[in-house]
């Protein structure tokens, strides 16, 4: 398993720049609306709590590529403890 990136602005910049690349074909499962990725490394102003205790994006249809593709690779999976995605 690859080492995960740190939760830093530099790591966020790297995820943003590389978001134009394809998602790994080893990525499985789906988003569970934990909201953890929306707090990397600061809280996104578009994340809103739902009545069900989950977190939702208020601009979901037009969200940026780095949001659409997170985690694009296993090394980008900073939110491993809560994220619904996994890599084989």
Describe the structure in your own words.
With 88 residues, the protein is an alpha+beta fold. It has one domain. It is 15% helix and 14% strand. The protein has helices at residues 9-17, 65-68; strands spanning 27-29, 47-49, 55-57, 85-87. The strands form 2 sheets. Strands 1-4 form a two-stranded antiparallel ribbon. It has a two-stranded antiparallel ribbon with strand order 2-3. A hairpin with a 5-residue loop joins strand 2 (47-49) and strand 3 (55-57). The termini are close together. The model has no long low-confidence stretch (mean pLDDT 92).
Helix and strand layout, with pairings?
Blueprint: H1 9-17, E1 27-29, E2 47-49, E3 55-57, H2 65-68, E4 85-87
Antiparallel strand pairs: 1-4, 2-3
Comma- or semicolon-separated keywords:
88 residues, alpha+beta, two-stranded antiparallel ribbon, two-stranded antiparallel sheet, 2 helices, globular
Principal-axis shape equals globular
Tell me the strand percentage band.
5-15%
Stretches where pLDDT falls below 50 for ≥5 residues? none
Termini separation comes to 10 Å
**Helix content bin:** 10-25%
- Major sheet, described briefly? 2 strands, antiparallel
The computed structural class is: alpha+beta
Overall tally of domains: 1
Order of helices and strands: HEEEHE
Q: Total strand count, please? A: 4
Quickly count the helices: 2
**Oligomeric state of the chains present here:** single chain
Strand order of the main beta sheet, please? 1-4
Structural Rg? 12 Å
Global mean pLDDT:
92
């Amino acid at each position: 398993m690859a080492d995960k990136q740190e939760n830093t602005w530099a790591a966020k910049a790297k995820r943003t720049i590389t978001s134009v690349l394809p998602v790994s074909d080893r990525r499985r499962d789906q988003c569970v609306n934990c909201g953890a990725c929306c707090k990397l490394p600061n809280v996104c102003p578009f994340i809103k709590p739902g009545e069900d205790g989950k977190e939702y994006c208020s601009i979901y249809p037009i969200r940026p590529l780095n949001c659409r593709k997170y985690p694009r690779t296993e090394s980008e999976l900073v939110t491993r403890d809560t994220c619904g995605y996994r890599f084989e």
